[in-house]
């Protein structure tokens, strides 16, 4: 028996399992977040919000699959799970800015590279945040392409406050939205949110770096598939980046966003 070969075989298997698990997480868990229960709006209301288009490896077509928030001309802020996965390459992502319409209009800019937070992948969806550097000169600002107001790192958002998601993700009709939509939800106490997510068959950790929001025990309003990486606003201020949820707009399980506050220093060190 050739032990070395066996070992090598196991390590290749482990390697494959690892990637299949990552691909599964990317496709099946993280794909959850769309705007459910919202209304159409135009891009002038959210000029810092951009589409993240994915190029399909097989069809070679581009399609909006995530969203991001403009930090400055060269950098946008999104969810790490949108810039990650088995076949991920920056060449398979691009940004569309300054348009209300999904996959059309505005300006398109290529992605140079992503800086996924170093803790991403270590504890469930914790650290699901990325700073993305755009190619060339990046974005040119105008009335519908502007930087976002980022939350102050020490600010604490109380429970039950109205907050807003916006995006082009799946609506209650089950398909992506042709136009930008927004929806108002309310911040949910983190302990309650943690308890809810702990009841799942495969419990998901709710960490201090996450903000839960929805209509608790009511449901019907949420971000969903295709809204990932997009904003959770408190007023005009970006406080969260859409990360995941148990389904969408579920009464029991609020939507979960990555809290931007704990990452402000890191964002500044990467993007400014
Ligand atoms: C909410 O999520 C739970 C757990 O996945 C599921 O059993 C339940 O059917 C969902 N509720 C609705 C209304 O979709």
UniProtKB/TrEMBL annotation:
Pfam families: Trypsin (PF00089). SUPFAM superfamilies: Trypsin-like serine proteases (SSF50494). The lineage of its organism: Eukaryota, Metazoa, Ecdysozoa, Arthropoda, Hexapoda. It comes from the Eukaryota. The keyword Protease applies. The keyword Membrane applies. This is Peptidase S1 domain-containing protein. PROSITE patterns: TRYPSIN_DOM (PS50240), TRYPSIN_HIS (PS00134), TRYPSIN_SER (PS00135). It comes from Loxostege sticticalis.
